[in-house]
Design brief:
The structure holds two protein chains of two kinds.
Chain A: H1 11-33, E1 39-40, E2 43-44, H2 48-71, H3 83-103, H4 105-121, H5 126-147
Antiparallel strand pairs in A: 1-2
Chain B: H1 3-14, H2 17-35, H3 40-48, H4 57-82, H5 91-102, H6 106-139, H7 144-160, H8 166-180, E1 183-184, E2 191-192, H9 206-225, H10 244-264, H11 271-286, H12 299-314, H13 316-322, H14 328-339, H15 346-351, H16 353-374, H17 378-384, H18 389-408, H19 412-429, H20 435-457, H21 463-467, H22 469-496
Antiparallel strand pairs in B: 1-2
Helix pairs in contact in B: 1-16, 2-3, 2-4, 2-16, 3-4, 3-9, 3-14, 4-5, 4-6, 4-14, 4-16, 5-6, 5-12, 6-10, 6-12, 6-13, 6-16, 7-8, 7-20, 7-22, 8-20, 9-18, 9-19, 10-11, 10-12, 11-12, 18-19
Classes of the chains: A mainly alpha, B mainly alpha.
């Protein structure tokens, strides 16, 4: 992968966003948990564990948010030199998830491998990249479908 | 039938030509993947789970045994050659091992690390043979109270010693428990948090989450890190022989490290990391070459490496006898077992002794293979480190995605793996450990079931948890642990607080 300068949002901002997301997630979970019956200690119902977990989760998430807000320990945050490349990987893999059922295993795997290799290596050596993607996708197709006899989508 | 007879039968099952080849493949792949900088044992297992699909369960277990030991050793290789610790447990190996490598003794450090890992692994496996069936026999008499209290103790200890703040690790445990409540409640049949989606009716698969937050997240982190230039030193076979002095200094350290690992592995939490640091501290105090610490003391490699492998092996005792993973590596191994329909625990030991003893035998084989295969090929493995990650990681990403599909033959699982990959990458990148989340996800449903059953049986009386000796002991230990943690936290806070300023006269 080509080296790039550090890009993307600041580590502190990402830390805060994650802490806020955890707090919001725990709060939503608790809100939904309160919709289930708690029951009694002698006869706990479906909402018993979720309510307890939700209350503890909200308290811890709030404590965590305050800790991140006050301490701002940005040194422990490291999303890599180029988070945008990771997001590009994620987008390609999401595309793979969407297209695997429609295109079939071999074409979708070839497409995903090619796209991922292009993202990670740039446009260096297109013939090598194309060959790598072709050999690799054919290799794992043979492994899964012939050697291991697994049902392919 | 004694344990020895059963173990011999296990060897008869596991030591077929096919399984020996499988063990070799597992060790080599585990070592290679474990050597990828930053991956660690958990990430390695997550990436390699797909290679076991379609195999006979015992052959798959044999492969996992090889991967487990290979991954641990691969991490040591990267630490010694590149000064890159794959996980917390490899940090002290970096300090002394890399210093040895810079002095031209990389080969000796690698071979002593392998010897230490081998001896500690064997000691741990003997412990497994001796104690796991006995504990599994006791566990047959355990009721929901005992399971609840053991799982609770594991989560409490894990929250306290997972290497991050208690609030962070506690939060990750609770998030794991929350994820575990998604789907149909097995006790009442009520749908919970499914967002009216059929995909979530059966809950979120533990294995899919593991593949996402470990396998996929590692791929994303590596993609974001870029292709770090790797210049591993060349290691020739003849360099692998330690000198007589190095060997004689290493053996006591290996013995001490093995015992430390064996004991610490039985405690929930990151036993590998704790045992290596403890072993390092012990060696720094006791070893003959203590004046060389920091500049390449061989005891600083031998002891911690033995401790790490000893802990990795003895943590299999609670996993196989009780079905409870006490750390992330064990949880990952458990997910590999579950894929093949094997649920560790007292029932496995008592109703499927063939699989249990086959697995134990396969671990012996994996440990031996590590020594036989890895040492001669260490130069080859070091040269594999030169393959650019920019080529390797895209291919690994596609294998992880394909593997995720094959778990349930369900395309929806791919979306979950991508989503959990993003979650794992963000959490790890912002300083959270995902190990407590994984353990919380696995133990959460056990805690819920154990507590509800206990309460129903005792008509809501908490005394039921304390009136049974074992559950009372576990609960008392958990309470003591919390009190000690709070006490330590308060003490350090008061110690840090500045003295009150003297009022001006």
């Amino acid at each position: 992968m080509q080296k790039t300068d550090r890009s993307g949002p600041s580590p502190r901002l990402v830390q805060l966003v994650v802490a806020v997301a955890l707090f919001a997630g725990c709060s939503l979970y608790l809100y939904a948990a309160l919709g289930f019956s708690f029951g009694a200690w002698s006869n706990p119902r479906a909402g018993f564990m979720p309510t307890i977990a939700g209350c503890i989760g909200v308290a811890l998430a709030l404590g965590n948010l305050l800790r991140v807000w006050r301490a701002g320990d940005a040194a422990s945050a490291d999303l890599g030199l180029s988070p945008s490349r990771a997001l590009a990987f994620l987008a390609i893999l999401a595309g793979y998830a969407a297209l695997l059922g429609r295109l079939g295993f071999l074409p979708a795997t070839f497409g995903a491998a090619l796209a991922l290799l292009m993202v990670s290596r740039g446009m260096r050596g297109p013939v090598v990249t194309l060959s790598l993607a072709a050999v690799f996708s054919l290799g794992i197709w043979l492994l899964f479908s012939r050697a291991l006899d697994l049902p392919l989508p | 039938m004694t344990s020895l007879d059963a173990l011999i039968q296990g060897f008869q099952l596991a030591a077929t030509p096919t399984n020996l080849v499988a063990a070799g493949i597992g060790v080599m792949l585990g070592t290679f993947a474990g050597m990828l900088p930053g991956l660690g044992i958990s990430g390695t297992i997550a990436l390699l789970i797909p290679i076991s699909f379609g195999l006979d369960p015992l052959t798959a277990l044999v492969i996992f045994g090889g991967i487990y030991y290979g991954a641990a050793y691969g991490g040591s290789t990267t630490s010694i050659l590149l000064n890159v610790p794959g996980e917390g447990a490899s940090v002290v190996t970096c300090v002394e091992g890399y210093a040895m490598a810079r002095r031209g003794r990389a080969g000796a450090a690698l071979s002593v690390a392998a010897l230490g890992s081998f001896f500690a692994g064997m000691l741990g496996l003997v412990g497994l043979v001796l104690f796991a069936p006995t504990i599994a026999g006791w566990a047959l008499a355990f009721g929901p109270q005992e399971y609840f209290c053991i799982a609770l103790l594991a989560l409490v200890v894990l929250s306290g010693i997972s290497g991050q703040s208690m609030v962070q690790s506690g939060l990750m445990v609770v998030v794991g428990i929350m994820l575990g409540t998604i789907g149909i409640d097995p006790m009442t049949g009520v749908e919970r948090f499914t967002l009216s989606s059929d995909v979530l009716l059966d809950g979120i698969s533990f294995i899919i989450v593991v593949m996402g937050v470990y396998g996929m997240a590692e791929v994303l982190q590596t993609a974001a890190d870029g292709d770090a230039a790797v210049s591993a030193p060349r290691v020739a076979f003849r360099d692998l022989y330690p000198t007589r002095e190095e060997l004689s200094r290493s053996m006591p350290a290996i013995g001490r490290g093995s015992l430390i690992g064996l004991l610490i592995g039985l405690v929930p939490g990151p036993s590998g990391t704790i045992s290596t640091f403890l072993s390092y501290a012990v060696e720094k105090r006791l070893s003959r070459g203590r004046d060389q610490f920091g500049s390449g003391a061989i005891e600083g490699v031998a002891g911690p490496e033995a401790a790490n492998n000893g802990a990795d092996t003895s943590t299999l005792i609670p996993l196989l006898s009780l079905g409870l993973p006490f750390n992330a590596g064990a949880a990952l191994l458990l997910s590999g077992f579950l894929i093949h329909g094997i649920t560790p625990g007292p029932n496995l030991v008592n109703t499927r002794p063939d699989l249990f003893w086959g697995l134990v035998a396969s671990l012996f084989i994996g440990n031996l293979m590590l020594l036989v295969i890895n040492l001669p090929f260490v130069g080859l493995f070091a040269s594999l480190l030169r393959i650019p990650l920019g080529i390797l990681m895209p291919l690994v990403a596609v294998v992880v995605m394909s593997g995720t599909y094959f778990i349930n033959n369900n395309l929806s699982d791919l979306w979950l793996a991508v989503a959990f990959g993003l979650v794992g990458w963000l959490l790890k990148g912002t300083g959270y450990s995902v190990a407590p989340l994984i353990i919380g996800l696995f133990l959460g449903p056990l805690i819920e079931k154990g507590f509800i059953q206990s309460m129903v049986l005792a008509d809501g009386s908490f005394l039921t948890l304390m009136s049974r000796p074992f559950s009372g002991l576990m609960l008392g230990t958990a309470a003591l642990f919390i009190l000690v943690r709070i006490g330590l936290g308060l003490r350090s806070r008061f110690a840090r607080a500045p003295l009150a300023p003297t009022p001006p006269r």
